[in-house]
């Protein structure tokens, strides 16, 4: 049997999407609030039938997931009962990719689901048709991993969906036996189990830090239905809402930053969206996006890949098989101001893990490291984790400098103390050089490598890119002015403190 393959879904990765070829774009716009849909003219065209694929499985590929901490790594699950980890070249594929980095072999039947841990690096979960959920540690040198670190064997039928909570300490699953379970993924024990007969759940989703679960499925009358649950008590749902009598599976997507819930039905042309609140009524229907073209599948762009200059808060990619195209649908909050909107872009989960695989497996839990979506901003949470090392001396200092009693930094090499302002100077210079280098990039492209426009459409595209670059540079200048004022205040405070002593 020839190996099966799949095309790389660039839309899941912000780092790759800027160079995604062959995407057909459609535009829709409406004046419905609180958000409307944005029309963009970027790279369009038809994908080459012989476009390079990722090949290597001996059966159909059932699920793929991008690594949330690596824009160039994919996990794929297949009917051949294996999971493969792929390294995607940064210059994208020039030929079929058949060499995988790791292969996970332990399931006895086909693997239907894979899920990356939201905060720990190199932790992957898989669910197969052998009714088992397996926890894998990819932080090993082995290319073929034969045994997982944990096997959860508590389901009585095929597992339909999996969802982590925010810090990855809990795992929710839906099963064909019509039960929703909340599990401890490290211990493999069931913490909560729903035995409610009035709701047959297909998909389940943790709703951020609200300590609630949302499930989509069907009612006893075969109507499509949503149900909201308390994660600590799954005996009875908090609320139920019947949607319609269609048969397509409902896929929920939740944006914890804006408390927005999007519900997409397979085979539908519309996308419903709600506002979720901790108080009753928990689900507040807002409106829906409507299209004549039904979606066969749908993908979501991570928050760090959104266009904040246009107040875009969510972006879908609809797979429309009837037209052989991918259609982006952007949710945009209408604002007249061109400046960065702080209220609709709170700090969000970044692309750096907050735990190593060993720390998470040992029982540690940490919230995701947060970043600001403001252009040019830095990590808001503590510094990235150092390379994993044996914890031989847990009391040893991890910082490269020590503080003496006078409040100054003392270098470990014994060269003597230096002031905090002197420590910041080289870092400021390095950041300035980095930002200066970034200014040569426009939408992910080197402006000196872009060919001159040949048609009127290409000229318009170049013009719009330049306008976005001008807006970004203005914001960068504003940030530099604020930082300069902060440095002036620090100098003034240091002078005043030296006068006092």
From TrEMBL:
GO terms for molecular function: actin filament binding. Residues 470-497 form a coiled coil. It comes from the Eukaryota. Pfam families: WD40, WD40_4. WD repeats lie at residues 54-88, 104-146, 152-193. Keywords: Coiled coil, Repeat, WD repeat. Gene3D superfamilies: YVTN repeat-like/Quinoprotein amine dehydrogenase (2.130.10.10). PANTHER family: CORONIN, CORONIN-2A. Belongs to the WD repeat coronin family. This is Coronin.
């Amino acid at each position: 049997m020839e190996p099966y393959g799949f095309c790389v879904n660039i839309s899941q990765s912000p780092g790759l999407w800027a160079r995604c070829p062959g995407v057909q774009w459609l535009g829709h716009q409406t004046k419905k609030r609180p958000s409307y849909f944005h029309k963009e003219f970027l790279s369009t065209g038809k994908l080459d039938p012989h476009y390079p694929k990722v090949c290597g499985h001996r059966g159909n590929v059932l699920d793929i997931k991008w690594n949330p901490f690596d824009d160039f790594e994919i996990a794929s699950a297949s009917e051949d009962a294996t999971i493969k980890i792929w390294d995607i070249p940064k210059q994208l594929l020039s030929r079929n990719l058949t060499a995988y980095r790791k292969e996970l072999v332990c399931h006895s039947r086909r693997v239907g689901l894979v899920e990356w841990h939201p905060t720990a690096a190199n932790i992957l979960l898989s669910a197969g048709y052998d009714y088992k959920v397996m926890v894998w540690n990819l932080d090993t040198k082995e290319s073929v991993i034969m045994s997982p670190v944990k096997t959860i064997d508590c389901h009585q039928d095929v597992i339909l969906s999996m969802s982590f909570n925010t810090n990855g300490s809990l795992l929710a699953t839906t099963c064909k036996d019509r039960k929703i379970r909340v599990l401890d993924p490290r211990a493999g024990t069931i913490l909560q189990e729903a035995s409610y007969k009035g709701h047959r759940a297909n998909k389940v989703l943790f709703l951020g830090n609200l300590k609630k679960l949302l499930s989509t499925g069907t009612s006893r009358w075969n109507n499509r239905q949503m149900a909201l649950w308390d994660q600590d008590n799954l005996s009875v749902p908090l609320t139920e809402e019947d949607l319609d009598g269609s048969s397509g599976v409902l896929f929920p997507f939740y944006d914890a930053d804006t408390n927005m819930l999007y519900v997409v039905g397979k085979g539908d042309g519309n996308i419903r969206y709600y506002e979720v609140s901790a108080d009753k009524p928990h689900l507040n229907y807002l409106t829906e996006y409507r299209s004549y073209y039904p979606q066969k599948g749908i993908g979501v762009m991570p928050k760090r890949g959104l266009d904040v200059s246009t107040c875009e808060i969510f972006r879908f990619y609809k797979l429309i098989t009837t037209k052989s195209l991918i259609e982006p649908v952007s949710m945009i909050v209408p604002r007249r101001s061109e400046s960065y909107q702080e209220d609709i872009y709170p700090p969000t989960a970044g692309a750096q893990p907050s735990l190593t695989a060993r720390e998470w497996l040992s029982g540690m839990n940490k919230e995701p490291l947060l970043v600001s979506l403001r252009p040019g901003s830095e990590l808001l949470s503590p510094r990235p984790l150092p390379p994993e090392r044996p914890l031989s001396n847990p009391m040893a200092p991890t910082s490269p400098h020590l503080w003496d009693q006078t409040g100054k930094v003392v270098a470990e090499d014994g060269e003597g103390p230096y002031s905090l302002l002197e420590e910041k100077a080289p870092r400021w210079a390095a950041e300035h050089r980095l930002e200066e280098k970034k200014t040569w990039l426009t939408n992910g492209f080197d402006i000196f490598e872009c060919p001159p426009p040949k048609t009127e459409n290409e000229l318009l595209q170049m013009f719009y890119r330049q306008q976005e670059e001008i807006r970004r540079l203005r914001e960068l200048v504003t940030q530099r002015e604020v930082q300069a004022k902060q440095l002036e205040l620090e100098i003034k405070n240091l002078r005043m403190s030296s006068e006092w002593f």
